[in-house]
Specification:
single chain; 331 residues; 2 domains; four-stranded antiparallel β-sheet; 8 helices; binds adenosine-5'-diphosphate; binds ligand DP6; binds cobalt (II) ion; Mvd1_C; ATP binding; EC 4.1.1.33
């Protein structure tokens, strides 16, 4: 039997997706904009099988219950959309902490989409792959592409997909991200639950959506102008506005840990010393520092001195998702 293997890199949003207008199809309230990273990725293999049900192994562990059904429901969507009836054995490895706010769902569902569609015998345009990956996890639609990527919210299944900012998916801006791993533990409130609670209950939510429009326009201009200072300022402010909506939710919640605030204080301290460094944060306590690629090692060393017990992982712009093999499975 053949096996089909795909690699997809994670992406970190500079303008955040935080809320669904349509939960079933995962249509967001606002456009978002991300950077795909070289350092963190998922590698997923899909093998056509004759068994009655799909199987899913993640990081060497056979999955069952909710973890398995999340994948099989997604494969059901792929089968319904493509007309395939093929069951699959999925084997995936995350080279990124799972469910820790480092976007494993983005690389995970992007890799799963590519590997599964290849195992169904399909060669689909990337826009279709982006739309399909979106049905697994919204942020996954952006991991189909490399570099800076915008998810155009659209208004329905056909019109909601990601596109790369530059046609060649290269990044001209000298940018890097340092992930400060405050905790690699799985979060208590998943992105899905967190954003649903916020959309339904936070009076701050409409203000966040509105400001995303302005932030998106401004950050695209700053990227064009290669103005990293501006990019950092806008991204940091957008992330903090997103996190502020959670404090306004009922019940209120926050992804911040005490260590998160310590890390932010260290970044502010470096900034006060004249370093160009800003941060963004997703649905988890980890902080991602935005800085120049050329200064990244220096900034990492400065931060490490201030935060000696924090693991730091340096990432640069990364490529889009791709099929890496379709060899016969020998094991
Ligand atoms: P994260 O911050 O890591 O994206 P989320 O709460 O958004 O956290 O999503 C985590 C979920 O994504 C996992 O519980 C699992 O359902 C799914 N996921 C993560 N990695 C993979 C993978 N390699 N293949 C399929 N699904 C995955
Ligand atoms: C804070 O894509 O993980 O990282 O669509 O429910 O699977 P689901 O959520 P997910 O949400 C990501 C939220 C975020 C911001 C972003 O990546 O834009
Ligand atoms: Co996620």
């Amino acid at each position: 039997m053949q096996t089909y293997t795909a690699i997809a890199h994670t992406n970190i949003a500079l303008i955040k997706y935080w809320g669904k207008k349509d939960d079933k199809f995962i249509i967001p309230f606002n456009n978002s904009l991300s950077l795909t990273l070289d350092r963190f990725y998922t590698k997923t293999s899909a093998q056509p099988i004759t068994a009655a049900t799909d199987s899913f192994v993640l990081d060497g562990q056979a999955q069952s219950g909710a973890a398995l059904s999340k994948v099989t429901s997604f494969l059901d969507i792929l089968r319904a959309e493509t007309g395939s009836t093929q069951r699959l054995a999925i084997n995936s490895t995350n080279h990124v902490p799972t469910a820790a706010g480092l976007a494993s769902s983005a690389s995970g569902f992007a890799a799963l989409t590519l590997a599964s569609c290849a195992a169904f015998g399909l060669q689909l345009p990337r826009r279709t792959l982006s739309r399909l990956a979106r049905r697994g996890s919204g942020s996954a639609c952006r991991s189909i592409y490399g570099g800076f990527v915008e998810w155009k919210k659209g208004q329905d299944d056909l019109t909601s997909f990601a596109t790369p900012l530059a046609a060649n998916e290269q990044v001209d801006l000298d940018i890097a991200m340092i992930a400060l791993v405050v905790s690699a533990q799985a979060k208590k409130v998943t992105s899905r639950q967190g954003m649903a609670t916020t959309v339904a209950t936070s009076p701050f939510y409409p203000a966040f959506v509105k400001s995303c429009e302005t932030d998106l326009l401004a950050i695209k201009q700053a990227i064009d102008a290669q103005d990293l200072e501006k990019v950092g300022q806008i991204a940091e402010s957008n992330a903090l506005k997103m996190h502020a909506t959670n404090l306004g939710a009922t019940p209120p919640f926050s992804y911040f840990l005490p260590e998160t605030l310590v890390a932010i204080a260290a970044i502010q301290q470096l900034r006060a010393k004249g370093f160009l460094c800003y941060f963004t944060m997703d649905a988890g306590p980890n902080v991602k520092v935005i800085c120049r690629g050329q200064e990244a090692l220096k900034i990492q060393a400065e931060l490490q001195a201030l935060l000696p017990n924090t693991e730091m992982l340096l990432a640069y712009p990364g490529p889009g998702a791709k099929i890496v093999n379709s060899e016969s499975l020998k094991e």
